[in-house]
Design goal:
mainly beta; Thrombin, subunit H; 7 strands; 0% helix; Phage_SPP1_head-tail_adaptor
Length: 112
């Protein structure tokens, strides 16, 4: 594997649920910090939603590895933010044999 060109500063976020006082929960996103990454887009597709159509594009996001359990290691269910763009993380795996990099499979959804 060649050295990825990690030129994008992404914010890693995780969902935080807090009681809403009425027996339910409200959820918000909390920043875990900034990571530098390389972003490789895949082939997009269009899907129908309730009142609009969505464009879904898969991405491979490559970043420096972090140990299991470290807050800087992405996990499925978290997301990356790049300005107003959001990338939902579906899977995380080591990108190379030495464990120097991680590959995150993520999806960006855009209303069309």
């Amino acid at each position: 594997m060649s050295i990825p060109q990690m030129t994008r500063a992404l914010v890693l976020e995780h969902r935080v649920q807090t009681p809403d006082g009425a027996g339910g929960f409200s959820s918000d996103w909390q920043s875990l910090g900034r990571v530098w990454a390389a972003i490789k887009p895949g082939t997009g597709r269009e899907a129908a939603a309730l009142s609009a159509s969505l464009s879904r594009v898969p991405y491979q996001i490559i970043l420096r590895a972090a140990p299991h359990g470290a807050p800087s290691r992405p996990q499925p269910g978290q997301r990356f933010r790049l300005g107003a763009r959001l990338f939902a993380i579906a899977a995380v795996t080591e990108a190379d044999d030495k464990g120097l990099y991680l590959t995150c499979t993520a999806t960006e959804e855009v209303a069309t």
